[in-house]
């Protein structure tokens, strides 16, 4: 069934303390759980505990063995006392746990993932975030295979045991919900460091990586120290335990997990060196390390009352990690990339069958709501609060929130209330962002009146019905604007308008010369624009707007319009004059802001283009985008070459100016690869051979892949030989192959999955191959005969019984089909029906398939 937000009731029982003992064995781990329980609701006689895939051995109430009844959710104890000690013994099987939820083995190590509802796979418990207890955890395991025994909090004792085993006892002084519980046992290499907090406390930092990977851990550890310092400086938030541990594992369903004092990470977001990781990897590591660290306050000290409130911690923590990244690197580039994620993925979610507000009100499988909406739109909602309240007002609100709710499990509304109270600002209309799904469209009408020297701006907001909600209301939307004269002289007026009604008109006086206005500057709200400024107006914004993100956005709009025009006519195509001028100008100033120019020179992605249209002609759009790219390549052939040659770097370091140059040089390569001349092939080959780092190497491979150059195959063979034994690099190799648009893409996929390094049990590998195919190999996946859809479906039927969480993520491109033509929609529905009729479909996939049909 479905769970509803409106059905929330507080727990009838509290658990103040929990002692857990793990006798770790591959196939039969014995878990003993001792809880101190108190009845809160006296009318309640029975205690229902959650449990899943557990073998129950015995239950004792106050030391007396008791019988229980098994329920759909777990077990029921009847007629329990008002206060008692509950002891439960269960057996679990970590080795055969391929869902990677609860306790499982990754490579040789035991590890856990409990968020959202994985703890019930460890023991019977009140598996809900508003039940917070103090934990003591004893781990017992074979010493040789598991020299390290880790759990949350502080190590308080350890010792030897019989038969080559040893044990460790950990205690976490902070009460926490069970989703933050973690343990790790295994053999690792360890990096040590310390951080001295603002109040002078020494914190031990420990990073655990696979044997032989010490040199790849440095960047993560440095990032952690930066994040710790930043949170003190920016929010006055200090770390609260004596030790902070991060463990990298190869088998992990998502990015990472903020378990108290013991983060567990997908190794992809920990390990980096110049030879094996790209600039993007370095960036992601810094950002995910920071994200999990920031959760210590926004998530752990203050947690969620129930899972509908997930965005309370995720939206806020994503916003905080974005602020951190903006401070560490280039603020404009960080913002541009965030805007792309919103437009490519979140807008698509809003217009598909899984549409939900950032605080969902109905959930079948919670894992399906770790979504771009909850995370990224959630962060945009926090950003809007920041915009409306200003930097210091937002900080006042944060201080109030933390002061008021430290140690509690609270709601999104509690957060907004704190922001409201600290600033005496009415946010009642703003709250609608939490309950209303969908992407508002802002229609713009702008006119400059010479006689009155006035600029009149009319804004209308409208949110179309979504799959989950038919009736929509106006939202409180902060609309950033910048007035720019067509000549570039004088008035540069930037402000944020508060659009609260369906339609509002704004008049700006004393605008003596012809002017235009950029709207939604800096992506001030997660909205779409319905606004077609004249070419000259867009050009003025591109040239003269003060904000870099605004200039980028206008250039992307100019390019998008050219692509749409191309896609509508079939005849001879010529590069539009406006684009000639745009690219001429951009290439001329490439050296000033290389990364920004790189972003502006790159064509909008197919996904971004799709989101701007009601219906898409997929084939025509893909073709038009290619044609435009080829024209730009040829027209500026000399420029690309010259610029590329000027951009070569010294020895690799992950440092801002170098990163920016490499970014621009990658864009040049992507155009040069379109030229298909001996000279450019030579240049690509040389660039590959000369490269001393993964960023440049991957740029060559991607350029060759996108243009389907024969060179691709020979370089890929070389690459494979070099990196055969490196899991993370092989993921890149797999993804490059899977993303190749090629008539034989399906047999390519089959070959990849038969490769000796492929495994359906490893989520990174599965995402590299099937994820890249379904999300980014547009031609292959959307083949007209439906064979791409069938291929994915066959695979999902297999994957679903192994790892339903990963399967449910992979189906996303196949349920977002509303913009496609009838023929393709029909092909997709045939496959969705196959899934629907499958007897043992997981709840994860079932929820999505059923909504999509
Ligand atoms: N809280 C983790 C993070 O944001 C993600 C956990 C995701 N869990 C899940 N079941 N999908 O870093
Ligand atoms: Zn998070």
TrEMBL record:
Residues 536-853 form the Peptidase M1 alanyl aminopeptidase C-terminal domain. Residues 220-433 form the Peptidase M1 membrane alanine aminopeptidase domain. It catalyses: Release of an N-terminal amino acid, Xaa-|-Yaa- from a peptide, amide or arylamide. Xaa is preferably Ala, but may be most amino acids including Pro (slow action). When a terminal hydrophobic residue is followed by a prolyl residue, the two may be released as an intact Xaa-Pro dipeptide. Its EC number is 3.4.11.2. Its cofactor is Zn(2+). InterPro entries: Aminopeptidase_N-like_N, Aminopeptidase_N-like_N_sf, PepN_Ig-like_sf, Peptidase_M1, Peptidase_M1_dom, Peptidase_M1_pepN, Peptidase_M1_pepN_C, Peptidase_M1_pepN_C_sf. Pfam families: DUF3458, DUF3458_C, Peptidase_M1, Peptidase_M1_N. GO terms for molecular function: aminopeptidase activity. It comes from the Bacteria. The keyword Membrane does not apply. Residues 438-532 form the Peptidase M1 alanyl aminopeptidase Ig-like fold domain. Keywords: Aminopeptidase, Hydrolase, Metal-binding, Metalloprotease, Protease, Zinc. Residues 76-180 form the Aminopeptidase N-like N-terminal domain. Belongs to the peptidase M1 family. PANTHER family: PUROMYCIN-SENSITIVE AMINOPEPTIDASE. This is Aminopeptidase N. It comes from Lacimicrobium alkaliphilum.
